[in-house]
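Collaborator request, handled under Task 6.
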Amino acid sequence: MGLVEREAVMSELRAALSDSAKGCGKVAVIRGGIASGKTALLRAFEEHAVAAGATLLRASGAPGEQSLRFGVIEQFLSGATTPPGATESLSHLAGLTTPQVGSEAPSSALSGTRAAHDLCVGLLELSRQGPLVITVDDHQFADSASLQVLTYLQHRIGTARVMLLLSQGTEPPSELVAEVLRQPYSRQFTLSPLSPEGVGQLLAQRLDSSVAVQQAPGSYAVTGGNPLLTHALIDDSLAPDQEAAAGAAVEPVAGQAFTRAVLAILRRGGPQLLRTARAVAVLGEFAAPALLARFLDVRPSVVGGALETLELAGLTTDAQFRYHGTRTAVLDELTPEERSALNRRAAELLHHDGVAPSDVVGYLLAAGEADEPWAARVLHAAADQALAHAEQALAGGKVAEAVQYLEFASRSCGDEHKRAMLTARLAWVQWTISPAAATRHHGPLQTALEKELLSSREVMRLVRSLAWHGRPEEAVRALQSLGSLPEGDGSRDPAERRLTRQWLARWYPQIFAQVERHAAMAEPMSSPGPVRRPHPAVLPRGTANVPAVDGPEQVLQRARVRETPLASVLSALHELLAAERFERAMYWCNELLQKAEGQHAAAWRGVLLDTRAAVSLRLGDLADAERDASSALTALSARSWGVAIGSPLSHAIHAATMRGHFDRAEAFLHQMIPQSMMDTRYGLQYRTARGHFHLATDRPHAALEDFEAVGDLVVKWKLDHPMTLPWRGDLAQALVRVGQTDRARELIKDQLRMIGPDSTRMRGISLGILASVSDLKQRLPLLGEVVDLLQAGGDRYQLAQAFVELGQVWQILGKLDRAQLIRRRALQLAKSCHAEQLSHQLLATREPLNSEPATSQWEDAEGMAVLSEAERRVAALAALGRTNREIGRKLHITVSTVEQHLTRVYRKLNIKRRADLPVGLPADIADIA
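Structure tokens returned to the collaborator:
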């Protein structure tokens, strides 16, 4: 591998070698920054010298070997090209061998000047046998005895066949070099860092040429042209786990090899360079020569030299690391104790320099402790600023940073009331990331509540968090203690109280029942703004008189992640669900999910995914429902879900059951759940889903047990409304399976009376259950109404079930063509819902036709165009199995008109009978129908 941008120096060194071989001795000095390529250049020249027939004596200086007498000389003598006779002679002169018996041992006087002189003479004698090349890498670390030999040698080198080549760093010249450079036969070369083009050439030696061109600018920016760092980047790029990514990357890949190279450079530079680099890493943007000198307690000149060395090594520019990974590598090597001490030192210096507390606080946070008197004053001032920084971080979506500031502010605040407020804010923010993480603040907040340090809003948030995590007794105690808060401190918050009251009434009825009559939960006498009565299905019985200030869409429109209570958002979404406004609920779930994901609000994401699963279930989108419910379960840990885990679990179980994926449904049922969940509405949802699983897997008695338990609790907790928990319909289905048809009929009639005429989907489902327990004569008109309602309600799965029932009735009545037409429609809906089991059942029971239906033109745009609007409506209803009389009543036209329309439809579509009408109706025609 060739040298890069060192060819000119190499050429002059070769010329010097040629001159020295002719009896014109030369001395050359190579200077350069750490890892600038000095050693590589020396080794390349040494290879050339040996190839040219010269005797090579080579050595390298090391800080740890400076005390070894004649250590460099000893390295000379161990070289492969040193003649054996010369080795023995020089070793004896240097006192490196035991003298033979009878020979004179070197005296102590010879260990000084005389020994150095004799060794110099010995080296000159060696040069008479042929050209001699002596190289000493990092000669500044050579022992003093060896340096004395080299000093004598350079005085006598002028007419000898000797070339002396020394290398050193950027430190001031040693006495030897200073003296050498005054001689006419000497020359000094300074190796600069590689240029951007040179870095590109180095990359091209080991990487694909196109990759080298792309990565050269970035590599130069990271390394500053240091060859060692550049080679380390290449090594990281070629690592097995990085090679594929690096091949397509425009920027270089910095990994373990780069980190090792950085640390190697710093260790080569000695302790002071390493200390300076650590100081630069800790001080960051505040690193400046004057502050660094005070930080390290050294003279400014020492810092200046170290900064120059770091810059020449390609690590820094203007006292800042070129690459953030370099700073990370330096800091990661520190022990926690070392890092803490350095950050405390930085905080102290910056404070005494008058730096703002907002800048000092980061160092105190990193130090983890600050016991000094000055730190107490800084912390007190920083607590206020930390809260402001936290709010700014939240506004920018930097939640982890906000939590860090709030934790610091809470720890450092000396005022007990203010600390309680900061802890409450911290718990509120952490809840949006991980509700489980917020539980560690429950204890301090409950203590603050006992001392009357929390406002009404903070208490209500604590109550909701305690309820969420299945701690009802503590939630009740918190609510009961709320009555002791002073009235005139502005802490009363009617909106938060109203929200908490509705939240508990809906999801935690046992807690609500215990505090229902407590003064702390009483509704305020008045509230600002327009008052609006909620949908009757939103709140359970006993809370219907609770006013809501805003409609659900107004609440959702103003919702802000981490500012608006999630309980308020969820209540508004469930109000839309209860009102069967599924499209709007889906729209808001998607809108708010996008905001939650952009701000890393895991709790919001989990709850919204779960709610979207609930919407998909009501629309019959089973695959979407199961996917979203599963995603909700992974968005938060089971501990973070608390008792609310019953909601996504119930949706996942229900969706998997409806699809016929019983193994997956059973896997969800085997997940661990908190026991306290069964005392909440989430437990009712879970029992209902489990009951439907039992019913689908032919265990009607187990289903009966679940549905009856749900009914008992619903009545006991005053949650009895079929728009939210239609337990009567569920129980009726189980009763039919065990032969109790009369009781089932009474239950479903009760449910229909409670629903009233306003609902479409739930009324359609309930009528479908009633049809299943009615005689054949009543069943046909009931199922016709069910189809109408479910088409309007948008639930494709329930509509598919209704068509299955309708097809069976026509089958019994002997209308086989019509039955098969209806089953074809049911099959299409089942497939669109991903209801695999229902699809398989329909395919298995399909009756063969006497002849295949004619190919329809309906399914292309040109075929659609041939029908008038009136013909489309009639055809749509006929395809659904309606009689001509029923179509006439539906469209307010005569039976004769219906017949005329159908005749034209058959002619235009080239079909002969009603059974040939296509099942795949476009959405707009299905809506019209």
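The cover message to the collaborator said: "The mean pLDDT is 83. The two ends are 80 Å apart (CA to CA). Please let us know whether this matches your experimental observations."
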